[in-house]
Amino acid sequence: MKFLQKDETLCIQCHACEDICAQTYFKSSDREKASIKIYDYTERGELINVCSQCGECIDICPELAIYRAKNGVVMIDKRKCVGCLMCAGFCPTFSMRIHSEFLEPFKCIACGLCSKQCPTKAIEVKSIG
Amino acid sequence: MNMTSIENRAEKIRNAHKLLKRFEYKPQEVQRGYANKTLYINISDNTIEAKEVAEEIKEKFVGGKGFGLWYLWNAVKSTTKWDDPENEIVISPGPIGGITQYPGAGKSLVVSLSPITGSVMDSNVGGHFGPLMKFSGWDALEIQGKAQRDIIIFIDGNEGIVEIYEAPLESVNSHILAEELTEIFAKSEEDKRNVSIVSAGEAAEHTLFGVLSFSFYDKRKKVQRLKQAGRGGIGTVFRNKKIKAIVVRYKGVTGNSNNAADVNKIKELGLKLHKEIRNFDKEQCRMREIGTAHLVEIMNDYDLLPVNNFKFGSHKDAHKIDSKVLVKKVVQGSPDGCWHGCSMSCAKAAKDYELKSGPYKGHKVVVDGPEYETVAGVGSNCGIFDPDYIMECNFYCDTYGIDTISFGTTMAFLMECYEKNIINKDITGGIELNFGNADAAMEVLHQMAKGEGFGKIAGMGVRRLKKLFIEEYGADPKFVNDIGMEVKGLEYSQYVSKESLAQQGGYALANKGPQHDEAWLIFMDMVNNQIPTFEDKAEALHYFPVFRTWFGLNGLCKLPWNDIEPEDNHTTDEPAKVPEHVDNYVQLFNSVTGKSIDKEAMFLQSERVYNFQRVFNLKMGYGTRKDDIPPYRSMGPVTEEEYLSREDRYDKQLKNLLGLEPEGMSTEEKIEALREYKYTQYEKLVDAVYKRRGWTEDGVPSVELMKKLGMDFPEVIKVIEEHQKGGFR
């Protein structure tokens, strides 16, 4: 299973990960469109929020729109998604991302582009199993 | 059923369809929650028409049940009977209906003249039909007339087609019919999720308490699941009109099919409630785990679970049918919502349940439920504590099209009559209808489907059975009227209200008959003593029935209002009202429609429709004080057996409330004294409630009230004035 491993002690909050993610998937400089989120630590007690690919949302989704791809990454099939946001509400780490311009949620697919941009190696793609 | 056989059968069924009428329209997008058109179909002459929805009607009736009541009011005369062609079945989801982010937003409201009450009936139901119908372009569907032979109606919301077919070969029973029609009308396996079906069943033809089933396609179990518009016999009207099914197909539901004014606010509110349910449902109502059946043990503990026709409120064997038992039978790890985005997910099902009786004996089927009302109704209230019987009875009631609540309450009444020798084996055709006899109850149910034997008699419901037993079998009218648990002709739903005066009113004053969807005040009244005075109770019986009406105007389910509560709800001024959730609903309405209501305007929307429904009852010859009187079984002990079972409690009441000394009294004297007291209290309650609601002493909304509410339509005022001229009826 591929997932993005984080080490918050190394994060310098440069937001480069958010920028590359939003640019790659939405051609946008709006960091709110990134599937990884860098918080101010005082905001919620964590710096880096990103999907762990745990897959709880797969069972929550009534539309069977969320599935685990062959590489182990949890994916959303937008054609089936009706934007109910149950996956977002029930995500144990609240890593399903929502944006005012989109009806459907979106999420990290562990592509690793952000880790290549990260100057401190605070995020790295790992494979287990 | 293997795929080949269903495919072959579907082809035969389709080949036998005869197109009677085809109507084409250009599907328009829904705007701010409204399609702004309704679909009128007359199946006597196969007329199909689109009607515009006037702004005034949206303003005054909102949608859902409000639309249903308005269209039915215009369709029927005061002399119209339920089986006259001019009676309509109106289905409408309401403006919020169909949003996918906020739990409980897929309800359809069904309105018709009821076979069992003779007056106007409303019933709410989940499933996908209502929202898919709206997204197909229709805020409401009005069906009038009667077909000559069995028909189905098909709405294709993508193609813009409405068709009426003569349909001779489909099964009538819902679990098979839904499978057949899904196979016929879905364009592919993947398309099955876009098809929803309304149907009744064989027993709906032969009884007066037939239900309508509304389906939703369960993508995990790959089967159409059935939710019921249960109360008041609208399924019976459906089959009387010779409708086998209404099918809608609409592909393309998105997170904003309603084209809401502010979809991001809806997303925000929905996400907040999803999180509340995720965090607190496990410790609050366990809806995701077991659904409403979690109530069985709670009601038993508080002496509120009906046992043996509401004689008692608890039983030593209740643990055999409580949620700990049922959870093992039904859930199989999947909480289900009956519309997209319902994370409350109270729907439950058992798969591969092997039937032990009836025409489908040996079949492995999906059983939807059981819900609390069914467990208590067909189970404890009939003295039956067998979970397998409850599952089997639930399945057959659903597929035959029978209301489990009315079935349970009617069977319980018959069982008591049987044990009291009012009826015997000669009358039942050899069936031994003692409390606890599950096989006997099941036999009566199968007879209802066949329309034969004692089942046909039982299917008339409690009010007509009382009359029959008094007139034909010499039953004591006082006793039979005391134990026959109906008001307005509708059978009671499953709570013992003996110790809650407010709930006695909640049941007996309810517009359509004794159903708990108007008011459930037992804990406020009896357990927490929050509404001690008549005025307090009257205030609760004003606020809650009116407030709860709002869900039915908008296509919403009541459960996510107060079966999940915010963490700090108990610290608010009025926790019973769940203020934060009320605020959510105000914002949801505004976010969908773009209007700007507040809590007061929200209440006014409901108050308008609530009072209109009361006047509708009046128009049909009901809706006055004489129609609001409960049977004594719902208020206190009718028999010595009942009195003695709670002797300490009742003796204390005689002493503390009436100042009597029970020691010197016979049980019969004690029963009579308590009875007189309880009815006096009830009359005082009714006076207080009518006054608070702005009704006359005879329970009629005053002309002034209707003017104040803006509901002074000339024909409405005329009904009130005609009643006033005639004085007390």
What distance separates the N and C termini of chain A?
A: 6 Å
In CATH's first tier, which class of the largest domain in chain B applies? Alpha Beta
* Large-scale geometry of chain B: globular
Q: Tell me how many strands of chain B there are.
A: 17
- Examine the coordinates and then state which fold CATH places here, giving the name of the CATH topology of the largest domain in chain B: Aldehyde Ferredoxin Oxidoreductase,  A, domain 1
Given the C-alpha coordinates, what overall shape of chain A results? Answer: globular
Helix percentage range of chain B: 40-55%
What does this entry look like structurally?
- The complex is a heterodimer of chains A (129) and B (729).
- With 129 residues, chain A is of the alpha+beta class.
- In chain A, 23% of the residues lie in helices and 16% in strands.
- Chain A is built from 5 helices and 6 strands.
- Chain B has 3 domains: 3-249, 4-Layer Sandwich (Aldehyde Ferredoxin Oxidoreductase,  A, domain 1); 263-491, Aldehyde Ferredoxin Oxidoreductase Protein, subunit A, domain 2 (Orthogonal Bundle); 501-725, Orthogonal Bundle (Aldehyde Ferredoxin Oxidoreductase Protein, subunit A, domain 3).
- Chain B has a 7-stranded mixed β-sheet. A 6-stranded mixed β-sheet of chain B has the order 3-2-7-4-5-6. A two-stranded antiparallel sheet of chain B has the order 14-15.
- The model of chain B has no long low-confidence stretch (mean pLDDT 96).
- Helix content of chain B is 43%, strand content 13%.
- Chain B starts with a helix and ends with a helix.
- In chain B, strand 5 and strand 6 (120-125) form a beta hairpin.
- Chain B contains 29 helices and 17 strands.
- Chain B is an alpha+beta fold.
- In chain B, helix 19 (501-508) packs across helix 21 and helix 24 crosses helix 29 (714-726).
- Chain B is globular, with a radius of gyration of 24 Å.
- Classes of the chains: A alpha+beta (129), B alpha+beta (729).
- Chains A and B meet through helix 4 of A and helix 8 of B.
